[in-house]
Amino acid sequence: DTLKQLDPVEFVYKADSQEKHVGFIAEDAPELVASKDRKGMSSMDVVAVLTKVVQEQQRTITELSEKVAQLQADKAGLK
Question: What is the pLDDT of residue 79?
Answer without folding.
Answer: 73
